[in-house]
Design brief:
Chains A, B: Belongs to the prephenate/arogenate dehydrogenase family. Chains A, B: Its EC number is 1.3.1.12. The structure is a homodimer of 305-residue chains. By secondary structure, chain A is α/β, with parallel strands linked by helices. Chain A has two domains: 172 residues, Rossmann fold, CATH 3.40.50; 121 residues, Orthogonal Bundle (6-phosphogluconate dehydrogenase C-terminal fold), CATH 1.10.3660.10. Helix content of chain A is 50%, strand content 12%. The first copy, chain A, contains twelve helices and nine strands. In chain A, the strands form two sheets. In chain A, strands 3-2-1-4-5-6 form a six-stranded parallel beta sheet. Chain A has a three-stranded mixed beta sheet with strand order 7-8-9, with helices on one face. In chain A, β1, α1 and β2 form a beta-alpha-beta unit. In chain A, α7 crosses α11. Chain A is globular and about 65 Å long. Chain A starts with a strand and ends in a 16-residue tail after the last helix. Chains A and B meet through α7, α8, α9, α10 and α11 of A and α7, α8, α9, α10 and α11 of B. The complex binds NADP nicotinamide-adenine-dinucleotide phosphate (2 copies).
């Protein structure tokens, strides 16, 4: 018996929630999965796909009788959902979220959580460029990290259960300080996304190079950027608006360094360029050794045609 | 009989040349493959690997009796090699190169090519983050583009043969104007590489986020950048020093746009962010429809552990 919760309520049924549902079933972690999403269209799709035992029309209905509630909606919507479900949460329930930003989500959600309900924020560091209920798959979290951000007063039993749950989903669990999380993620995720969006935007804008040229000749490096820049606009708008400070700090560092490299190109300083490009290889090696990426050339992309 | 050349000389035996050798053999495009590289170590490795019929100690020896000579060395070395082999090239030989920048390579090589030898510059838009003679594989060019940049006086027969040769290697062949090539590549390859190097450098530099955190949590987007930033430092130094103007122009556009997005984050302009992020998705779709990348989530990366 791997069951950890009797009834898990998934609020939002996109990439993350649907992957959680598939992985919950794979490991038998819950007695029952109840889900809800904003649109009737998504709810209907999920009924067809069948990865929830029950799909209901509102968040308040979904949390009824649930011992784990997962907020899996864009960061900007967390406040509204928490406000809505707050009064309906039963004593002893655990509430968690999967939002990509933590300080602002905690500020938005915590005030609506009643005494006796355990709010433990979380963030699985796993995702793809696809979104929506059809994009989920059971192995998304395997060997990825899930960060939990318990407060000092968090209930140890509730925390241990949530940790076991994420481990059951395939993830390695870490705990982290809230503001440190937002800074680390600005570096490893938020800024890379903004930069990729920007570069793809520049390519799209440039009148002297046509879109069809950009598309045809993308294999030389650019196509990796377009994958990242194909991610969901709502999710990413909310991330940047809600992790403003850390994102702007890292972008400031980034432009500073970029200007130094630009200057080296302008002045023909090959040594500076060579040394800079040599240093960055070590990080790649570390990522491969840590099992967080494949060493196969081009990520082992299959032949595309 | 698919033989197009009797003897192909590969100058430089890294990723591109070794992949060409494997693909030449796969299709039977040459009677004989002769190769040379700078270091005895590489030459010895290639003798072991056996993808050349003959490995010789110098470029002048390699071009002897060759009807196709391929310069597959870093862009900054083209001048030196051309100067060396120029006097030893037989009438009717075709000389091509695979350098990632074209204007400066043409300026470096063309003056050393004798009358009656056909110099037709080229650039296969295919590569990986790995380098050296062990990194090559026969399918590297399959369904990728190879750009040829014949001059107005190029011999039509020599051009037709070189085109057939690249098609035999698996590539689709296009012709392009030299300066336009350098601009297009600045967009689709050179600037993305510089930006990726920069972002990885920032992550490595930041005192408040450790390298081990960056490595552990890279799956959220950053690891795609580290792949690009693991590419060969010599090759990329030479690319930037030799495509200075176009690279700096595109970087100028890039920082302009990045500042606009930074400003939107600072002022909380969610509409601007959302619209920007929506526009860039169309380009990704085009790339997938053109068969230049896979639509599988995360490039269909295999499980990494
Ligand atoms: N994608 C990633 O790579 C990733 C990784 C880690 C964490 N996250 C975080 O996970 C969360 C969900 O992301 P996702 O990728 O799963 O997004 P997604 O695929 O776009 O799904 C979002 C879901 O939220 C629902 N929703 C949106 N607004 C709502 C509202 N006002 N009320 C109720 N439901 C609403 C949507 O319903 P409809 O379908 O009806 O619109 C949809 O089911 C976000 O906070 C994101 O930051 C994402
Ligand atoms: N990698 C890509 O993604 C890619 C894609 C398209 C085009 N290109 C272009 O293709 C060319 C080769 O790139 P690559 O990736 O194949 O590089 P690589 O794997 O690093 O190999 C470079 C080769 O050039 C040889 N070489 C270097 N300096 C030399 C010298 N002074 N004399 C003789 N040989 C010398 C090296 O010999 P040693 O091994 O003895 O040092 C090595 O065999 C470059 O111009 C590059 O811009 C690369």
């Amino acid at each position: 018996m791997n069951r950890i919760y009797d009834r898990v309520a998934l609020i939002g049924l996109g990439l993350i929630a649907s992957s959680m549902a598939h992985a919950i079933r794979r490991a038998g972690l819950a007695g029952e999965i109840v889900g809800t999403a904003r649109s009737e269209e998504t709810r209907e799709t999920v009924r067809e796909l069948g990865f929830c035992d029950k799909v209901v029309d509102s968040a308040t209905q979904a949390v009824e009788g649930a011992d784990l509630v997962v907020l899996a909606v864009p960061v900007g919507v967390m406040d509204e959902i928490a406000r809505e479900i707050g009064p309906h949460l039963a004593q002893g329930t655990t509430v968690t979220d999967v939002g990509s930003v933590k300080r602002s989500v905690i500020d938005a959600v915590a005030p609506h959580i009643p005494e006796g309900v355990h709010f433990i924020p979380g963030h699985p560091l796993a995702g793809t460029e696809h979104s929506g209920p059809r994009s989920g798959f059971a192995t998304l979290f395997d060997n990825r990290w899930c960060i939990l951000l318990p407060g000092e007063t968090s209930d140890p039993d509730a925390l241990a259960r949530l940790r076991a749950f994420w481990e059951g989903l395939g993830a390695n669990v870490d705990e982290m300080d809230v503001d440190h999380h937002d800074l680390v993620l600005a570096v490893t995720s938020h800024c890379p996304h903004l930069i990729a969006y920007t570069m793809v935007g520049v390519a799209d804008d440039l009148r002297r190079v046509t879109d069809s040229e950009v598309i045809k000749y993308s294999a030389a490096g650019f196509r990796d950027f377009t994958r990242i820049a194909a991610s969901d606009p709502t999710m990413w708008r909310d991330v940047f608006l809600n992790n403003r400070e850390a994102t702007l700090e890292i972008l400031g560092r980034f432009t500073e360094e970029l200007f130094a490299l630009q200057r080296a190109i302008r002045t023909g300083d090959g040594t500076l360029l060579f040394d800079y490009f040599t240093r960055t290889r070590a990080i790649r090696r570390g990522i491969i050794e840590a099992g967080q990426d494949t060493d196969a050339p081009d990520f082992g992309r299959g032949k595309t045609k």
